[in-house]
Write a structure and sequence with these properties.
Blueprint lengths: L1 H5 L4 E4 L6 H31 L6 H30 L3 E3 H34 L4 H4 L2 H27 L8 E2 L6 H5 L7 H35 L3 H28 L10 H21 L2 H16 L1
Parallel strand pairs: 1-3
Antiparallel strand pairs: 1-2
Helix pairs in contact: 2-3, 2-10, 2-11, 3-4, 3-10, 4-6, 4-8, 4-9, 6-8, 8-9, 9-10
Length: 308
């Protein structure tokens, strides 16, 4: 036991996406551009919603919160990746790795819960329009958003506590560009079968459960719209189409990654790029291009800025 404690891992080595110099430059450029688009696009949505009184509906309130989560989510991993690609320093302290894992799952699961709430908002607006104002009152919206953050905190705490119980005394090379459950658990100096199933049940079932709820809500919306076609319903359905695109980009890679034990398949670090970088980058484009109100408000905001 003393020998194991004395050789405990104090840092991990993140191998990143590639060791080739040309690809490193390419990845740095792509990650930098993607991060800039995430920051600018989501900040633009937040400012637009906060400054335009016409965008005071629950849908835009939730969209504003989604933009804030996307900024936090991408900022957990991308700045570290950019520094690593630029400096070549791939070591990360054990405590820093655990902190990155905690905040990644904290914000990521909160986003999944929020997307589920947004689907409930669209279902209520289309299927129960007469009760929509009462159900999605501002107080209820704040309570739902708070519940998303609390749920994300509980999920992430469980993941991190399970990880901290494992001994790390041997290899410290992580075959990824950020600290996550699957690549780290393979480095543990112990039998991790039970822990792997617990983590797969935690992260994987949350991803799958939220996804199934979303699919069910969209199925109900589609049935309602087909039964009662109107201009307003088709407009709402168009909004749901953008929601489906955002959900697919986030949930499908997460289900593929987390709904299995660590040793069944190798972790595809390029799949991780989809839900850590690509999905937050596409959300502003998906939601703004599909919403005429958002585009009009952004254009008004741009004209106001030009007058100063």
């Amino acid at each position: 036991m003393a020998q194991e404690n004395s050789s405990r891992v104090t840092e991990f080595i993140l191998l990143g996406l590639s060791d080739t110099q040309e690809l490193t430059i390419l990845f740095f450029t792509l990650f930098l551009l993607a991060y800039a688009m995430v920051l600018l696009g989501n900040l633009l949505i937040i400012v637009t919603v906060r400054t335009d009184p016409k965008l005071s509906s629950p849908m835009y309130f939730l969209l504003c919160n989604l933009s804030f989560i996307d900024i936090c989510y991408t900022s957990v991993t991308t700045p570290r990746v950019l520094v690593t690609l630029l400096s070549g320093h791939k070591a990360i302290a054990f405590e820093g790795c655990m902190a990155q894992l905690f905040f990644l799952h904290f914000v990521g699961s909160s986003e999944m819960f929020l997307l589920t709430v947004m689907a409930f908002d669209r279902y209520t607006a289309i299927c129960r329009p007469l009760h929509y104002t009462a159900i999605m009152a501002r107080g209820a919206c704040w309570a739902l958003v708070a519940a998303c953050w609390v749920g994300g905190f509980i999920h992430s705490t469980v993941q991190t506590v399970l990880m901290l119980q494992l001994p790390f005394c041997g290899p410290n090379t992580i075959h990824s560009y950020f600290c996550d459950v699957l690549p780290i658990i393979r480095l543990a100096c112990a039998d991790t079968a039970l822990t792997e199933w617990l983590m797969a049940s935690n992260s994987g079932l949350i991803s799958l459960g939220c996804f199934l709820v979303l699919v069910a809500s969209y199925a109900l919306i589609l049935a309602k719209v087909r039964a009662r076609v109107s201009q307003g319903n088709w407009k709402a359905l168009s909004t749901c189409a953008s929601h489906v695109m955002a959900v697919t980009l986030l949930f499908m890679p997460c289900i593929f990654t987390y709904l299995r034990p660590a040793g069944t398949l190798p972790t595809n670090k390029y799949v991780c790029v989809i839900y850590t970088i690509f999905s937050p980058m596409m959300n502003p484009l998906i939601y703004t291009l599909r919403s005429s109100e958002m585009k009009e408000s952004m254009w008004t905001l741009w004209k106001c800025c030009r007058t100063f």
